[in-house]
Amino acid sequence: MRLLKKLSFSLFAICLMMSSSLMAQKRDFYELRTYHIENAEQEAMLDDYLSKAFIPAAHKQGIAKVGVFKPIDSQPDAGTKVYLFIPFKSMDEYLALEGKLAKDQVYQAAGSAYINAAFDNPPYKRIETAILKGMSEHPKYAESALTTPKKDRVYELRSYEGPTERLYKQKVKMFNSGEMDIFSRLNCSPIFYAETIAGANMPNLMYMTTHENMEVRNEHWKQFGADPAWAAMKDLPEYKNTVSRNDTRLLYPAEYSDL
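Structure tokens predicted for NIPSNAP family containing protein:
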């Protein structure tokens, strides 16, 4: 009997360890929503909705952190876009959110101006959405470690488009095999690294790093280019021609952003 108990305990411990390992490897899903806006009035309406209605409602549904970002003043699209980043533990959580918000009377009241906007006074021009999945070696999003004023920060959102699915997957492999580690070593404080599973520019991966200001951002890229690990990796045959287009957006977090 004692031996049986020991065996049972050992099996339980092994199952627990396996379960913990699987949970640790579970990858987040993200919605990256881009609001295209035409004027300051739409931006103000969006800010009011996101800060007073959507983000509090998302928190209530167990989404701890929501990011809101805007192009910095020097960017050609400044004042024309607002980016909303929503992390989910699963696709089921993503699919359930809309229905839960529809039943949330506090949210409906707080967001009434946005939800019930008239056809000739909309809060945006269009909405563009990408659905992403965290990379295997960075499966969860993270908060930026920056403590500087949000208005001074530079959050860099990049999309690397691959010429084919095969070559795109090689770029994902490159990130998982050491490229992400370089950013971490340089204290670029990443928010996420992800594969796009539905979006406008597939096949592509997307990621976001954060920097105290533009000067620091430029220095980080200078250091990245000179990093020995990057020098050893970038010319390997398996990683040749994996990016056909690099779309870079320089953003700052809204004051009410969680990230």
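The chain has one domain: 27-253.
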